[in-house]
Amino acid sequence: MKTIVATLALGALLAVTGTAGAKEWKTVRIASEGAYPPWNATDPSGKLIGFEVDLGNDLCKRMKVTCEFVAQDWDGIIPALQQGKYDAIMSGMTITGERKNVIDFSVPYGTEPSVFAVAAASPLAKSLNIGVDRSDLNNEAAAKPVIDKLAEALKGKSVGVQVSTIHIDFMEKHLSKVSMRSYDKMDNAGIDLASGRVDAILGDRSVVEAIVKAEPGKMVVVGPNIIGGVIGEGMGVGLRKADADLKKLFDTAIGEALKDGTVKKLSTQHFGYDITPN
Amino acid sequence: MNWQLMWDSLPRMLGGMGLTLQLIGGSLALGAVVAFAVALLRLSGNRPVEWIAGAYVFVFRGTPLLVQIFLIYYGLGQFEFVRDSILWPVLREPMWCAILALTLNTGAYTSEVLRGAILSVPQGQIEAARACGMSRALAFRRIVLPVAVRQMLPAYGNEVILMVKASSLASTITLMEITGIARRMIAQTFAVFELFIVAGAIYLILNFVASRLIKYAEWRLTPYLRARA
Amino acid sequence: MLELLSFGPNGWGGQLLTGTAMTVAVAVSAFAFGIVMGSLGASAKLSHSLILNALADVYTTVVRGIPELLVIYLLFFGGNGVVSAIASAFGYDGRVELNAFTIGVVAVGLISGAYSTEVIRGAVRSVPFGQIEAARACGMGRWLILRRVLVPQTMRFALPGLGNVWQLTLKDTALVSVTALAELMRATHLAAGATREPFLFYSAAAVLYLALTTVSTILFDRAEQTANRGVRRA
């Protein structure tokens, strides 16, 4: 009797999903932060929108599966994937070595440099502008003087970044003497830059630009476009290591979408320029 | 369960202890001042003053602390006039915003505890003090307050424990106290379960120590209740 | 600016209201679950079994001693593992999953239950023993005494304390927002970030929470009056 009651109680509490093991993928649940425009955002009705949602739906059509987007806060997005709360992550997540230790990635579907933004009236708007447009961290000899100049300009200043990102990795590796504040969401870093609680923010170019544009004239994007090294190999779909079959599906679909210009089209629509990886 | 990782995380996690203790200590000390003032205002007999103090208690007891923290940190920082005011050097710092939110929160709860304790002091004792020729202020200082403080200690002990726990919410506004460090380490190791268990254990020990301290204070303040040797 | 709070396509009003409904749903379910846990906990604490005493003590001490945020995170990331283990013990091999709502209810309910345990235990003990003796003398059996004497009186004594637990529970649901469940706090957080109007939205949330706590205070006061209608006043 007790067993029956317990089983019933469990049954009432649980949403039992699919069958495990060797399976045909019918539905794929994709997690996104919903607070990282233009990559992903939430509209006032609570729906997830943005480049990755449109791209994800397109990819699922190619993979002949049903897509379901679920919202998940950024700082738990990888652990919750491992827990099986969803099957894939499309949330502006850069492919990095550290993350590859715990999860798998599809081939990249987008790439972006990282940039700083500062208050327009701040002296940093001049001093961070070090006359270099692009700095590739893979080219260490060329990157070193650039980083030294950045470190010099940011001495005694504070930089806001999002928790658990390549930008934290960059700050810790290259600008470890600059004080850093980590935010749960990039939006909040933007709010604190606008109010002057931090002197600068560092993030993916399009996201930083979106923050700057939200309050015209108050903030500016400044300094070099940083690529390579800890800034990584572009954004890919995050997947569990066990799901090699799903990775294959995504890889093929992304390959097709890149080839026939879908990624480029969606990118122009959401970003205003092309973010396809080369 | 990765025991090695849990053990190794301990020193770094304990590095956040200083900040956690500052948050708790700062907000409890300031909160006691606020509570004292508000409790007196609510018993002042002046209607408008009582109403304002009551409204403060109502608002801060009726909303989640998380809302209060965000309202003070992100909400106030939004306004030009706040940023231009002399308060900005204080409100600019996440640390002070957290202490302010925790102080106002615990101040509201503690003022209720204190008010109840003051009201529970037997009228006869106050009459006796007055009959001995004490002024109202003196009777309050010598009789009412000491009795009330002893009376409120058990309930205040619960409030202290709530504050120890509440300090963890400071991590939501970029502060690197124990929970903040745990979250940062999780971002690097992805070991959610292990690291939150370590953090939880630290809070448990903090609360154990806090409740012992309150028990000790109770024991010290009530010598007349102890069995005679 | 008020357009942002409206119910139109550009307003977040609808989200705030559905969020409020979700908050109430989580709070009510968690409170109910908490009362079940609290009753179990109180009976364990009042039983003569040392093991049950110890178990209940560990439950209330641990859950009340660690931050609510950690309890929720631990369940969110660890709950699935535990449930899957239980499921496979029952011979089910598929993947079992707790949704965000269930996790929120269980997490907040566990916290609520730890506080309810103390309230209910105190209430049971304040039922005068003479009444139970009297019931026995009338020839009532154990169940009848429980049903007719102990439970109704305990409920009356427990009401004020449970009212406080309800307020705690309602406010604790704000922390469930970290599991991405679309309750009031999360809707507010998203709206504040997306519109860059934190003051407006957090104030709106504060007003909504205040409305909830005020209404529930009134309801609990009514319930207390009803429960005490047969009690002689001094």
UniProtKB/TrEMBL annotation, chain A:
<dbReference type="GO" id="GO:0015276">
    <property type="term" value="F:ligand-gated monoatomic ion channel activity"/>
</dbReference>
<feature type="domain" description="Ionotropic glutamate receptor C-terminal">
    <location>
        <begin position="27"/>
        <end position="273"/>
    </location>
</feature>
<dbReference type="InterPro" id="IPR018313">
    <property type="entry name" value="SBP_3_CS"/>
</dbReference>
<protein>
    <submittedName>
        <fullName>Transporter substrate-binding domain-containing protein</fullName>
    </submittedName>
</protein>
<dbReference type="Pfam" id="PF00497">
    <property type="entry name" value="SBP_bac_3"/>
</dbReference>
<keyword id="KW-0732">Signal</keyword>
<dbReference type="InterPro" id="IPR001320">
    <property type="entry name" value="Iontro_rcpt_C"/>
</dbReference>
<feature type="domain" description="Solute-binding protein family 3/N-terminal">
    <location>
        <begin position="27"/>
        <end position="274"/>
    </location>
</feature>
<comment type="similarity">
    <text>Belongs to the bacterial solute-binding protein 3 family.</text>
</comment>
<dbReference type="GO" id="GO:0016020">
    <property type="term" value="C:membrane"/>
</dbReference>
<feature type="signal peptide">
    <location>
        <begin position="1"/>
        <end position="22"/>
    </location>
</feature>
<dbReference type="InterPro" id="IPR001638">
    <property type="entry name" value="Solute-binding_3/MltF_N"/>
</dbReference>
<dbReference type="GO" id="GO:0030313">
    <property type="term" value="C:cell envelope"/>
</dbReference>
From TrEMBL, chain B:
<feature type="transmembrane region" description="Helical">
    <location>
        <begin position="190"/>
        <end position="210"/>
    </location>
</feature>
<feature type="transmembrane region" description="Helical">
    <location>
        <begin position="20"/>
        <end position="41"/>
    </location>
</feature>
<dbReference type="Pfam" id="PF00528">
    <property type="entry name" value="BPD_transp_1"/>
</dbReference>
<keyword id="KW-1003">Cell membrane</keyword>
<dbReference type="InterPro" id="IPR000515">
    <property type="entry name" value="MetI-like"/>
</dbReference>
<keyword id="KW-0813">Transport</keyword>
<keyword id="KW-0997">Cell inner membrane</keyword>
<dbReference type="InterPro" id="IPR035906">
    <property type="entry name" value="MetI-like_sf"/>
</dbReference>
<dbReference type="GO" id="GO:0022857">
    <property type="term" value="F:transmembrane transporter activity"/>
</dbReference>
<protein>
    <submittedName>
        <fullName>ABC transporter permease</fullName>
    </submittedName>
</protein>
<dbReference type="GO" id="GO:0043190">
    <property type="term" value="C:ATP-binding cassette (ABC) transporter complex"/>
</dbReference>
<keyword id="KW-0812">Transmembrane</keyword>
<feature type="domain" description="ABC transmembrane type-1">
    <location>
        <begin position="17"/>
        <end position="214"/>
    </location>
</feature>
<dbReference type="InterPro" id="IPR043429">
    <property type="entry name" value="ArtM/GltK/GlnP/TcyL/YhdX-like"/>
</dbReference>
<feature type="transmembrane region" description="Helical">
    <location>
        <begin position="53"/>
        <end position="76"/>
    </location>
</feature>
Automatic annotation (TrEMBL), chain C:
<dbReference type="InterPro" id="IPR010065">
    <property type="entry name" value="AA_ABC_transptr_permease_3TM"/>
</dbReference>
<keyword id="KW-0997">Cell inner membrane</keyword>
<dbReference type="InterPro" id="IPR035906">
    <property type="entry name" value="MetI-like_sf"/>
</dbReference>
<keyword id="KW-0812">Transmembrane</keyword>
<dbReference type="GO" id="GO:0043190">
    <property type="term" value="C:ATP-binding cassette (ABC) transporter complex"/>
</dbReference>
<keyword id="KW-1003">Cell membrane</keyword>
<comment type="similarity">
    <text>Belongs to the binding-protein-dependent transport system permease family. HisMQ subfamily.</text>
</comment>
<feature type="transmembrane region" description="Helical">
    <location>
        <begin position="70"/>
        <end position="92"/>
    </location>
</feature>
<feature type="transmembrane region" description="Helical">
    <location>
        <begin position="20"/>
        <end position="42"/>
    </location>
</feature>
<dbReference type="InterPro" id="IPR000515">
    <property type="entry name" value="MetI-like"/>
</dbReference>
<keyword id="KW-0813">Transport</keyword>
<feature type="transmembrane region" description="Helical">
    <location>
        <begin position="98"/>
        <end position="116"/>
    </location>
</feature>
<dbReference type="GO" id="GO:0022857">
    <property type="term" value="F:transmembrane transporter activity"/>
</dbReference>
<keyword id="KW-0472">Membrane</keyword>
<feature type="transmembrane region" description="Helical">
    <location>
        <begin position="199"/>
        <end position="220"/>
    </location>
</feature>
